[in-house]
């Protein structure tokens, strides 16, 4: 390993550790909690992205043009979506067509509180490209609750994963391959046994490289303000199998 790469990894580990401490010491904004009577429950898949790999395949989108090696989305997982079993519930044909052709910036704006909006913009870089609007139209409309509660739950789940050891595992292995079994073992150490089949890696191909682009986690049950990820995942049906291994891509085009 070259001195430059070793120095970069040390810097990223330090920043990730400092960011984790700050996140742990910060209480969630009261505005961002689900409204009473609008609880989220059922079977879902939590989809989280490893943004540097995504940006290799879409370098010109707004969120990738501003990403740096010390950006939060280069050091932890970003929210892609929270997917119930159904999609496009009660969505009119015109809106659905706009969503399917990726005309996301012309979809209706997501109506959440100012506090939740700040959290969502931080956890979901793709909101710069209208990802938040797309995820609500395609998936959130089938969640059985409102936009505030849906995104508050999705953010609570994302925060729980980013508080685990898995983001640190990724940062420690920048530029190297990780297996699905290694990621699973790290999650089971943090959340408890019984998650096999409920966690899957997603990968993309970038030239001759296979990159880990994110993780999917199957969940089932009631998602509260402080979700028990181990219990939710353990109660879920198994996922379809993802990729077996991939390289953890650092920020910046390779």
How would you characterize the overall build of this protein?
With 254 residues, the chain is α+β, with helices and mostly antiparallel strands. The chain has 10 helices and 6 strands. The protein has helices spanning 3-25, 51-57, 62-65, 93-100, 114-123, 131-138, 147-162, 166-172, 180-191, 229-234; strands at residues 40-49, 78-84, 177-179, 199-206, 209-223, 245-247. A hairpin with a 2-residue loop joins strand 4 (199-206) and strand 5. The radius of gyration is 18 Å and the shape is globular. It starts with a helix and ends in a 7-residue tail after the last strand. Residues 1-5 and 13-38 have low confidence and may be disordered.
Summarize the structure.
By secondary structure, this protein is of the alpha+beta class. Helices cover 40% and strands 18% of the residues.
């Amino acid at each position: 390993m070259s001195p430059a790469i070793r120095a970069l990894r040390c810097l990223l580990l330090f920043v990730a550790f400092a960011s984790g401490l700050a996140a742990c010491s910060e209480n969630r904004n009261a505005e961002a909690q689900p409204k009473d009577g609008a609880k989220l429950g059922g079977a879902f898949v939590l989809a989280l992205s490893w943004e540097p790999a995504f940006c290799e395949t879409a370098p010109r989108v707004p969120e990738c043009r501003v990403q740096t090696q010390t950006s939060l989305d280069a050091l932890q997982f970003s929210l892609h979506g929270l997917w119930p079993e159904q999609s496009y519930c009660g969505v009119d044909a015109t809106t659905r067509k706009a969503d399917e052709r990726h005309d996301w910036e012309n979809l209706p704006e997501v109506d959440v509180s100012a506090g939740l909006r700040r959290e969502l913009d931080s956890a979901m870089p793709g909101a710069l490209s209208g990802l938040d609007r797309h995820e609500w139209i395609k998936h959130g409309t089938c969640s059985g609750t409102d936009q505030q509660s849906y995104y508050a739950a999705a953010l609570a789940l994302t925060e729980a994963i980013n508080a685990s050891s898995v983001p640190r595992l990724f940062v420690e292995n920048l530029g190297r391959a990780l297996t699905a079994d290694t990621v699973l073992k790290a999650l089971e150490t943090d959340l408890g046994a019984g998650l096999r089949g409920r966690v899957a890696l997603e990968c993309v191909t970038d030239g001759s490289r296979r990159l880990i682009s994110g993780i999917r986690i199957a969940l089932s049950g009631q998602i509260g303000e402080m979700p028990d990820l181990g219990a939710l995942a353990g109660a879920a049906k198994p996922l379809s199998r993802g990729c077996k291994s991939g390289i953890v891509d650092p920020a910046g085009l390779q």
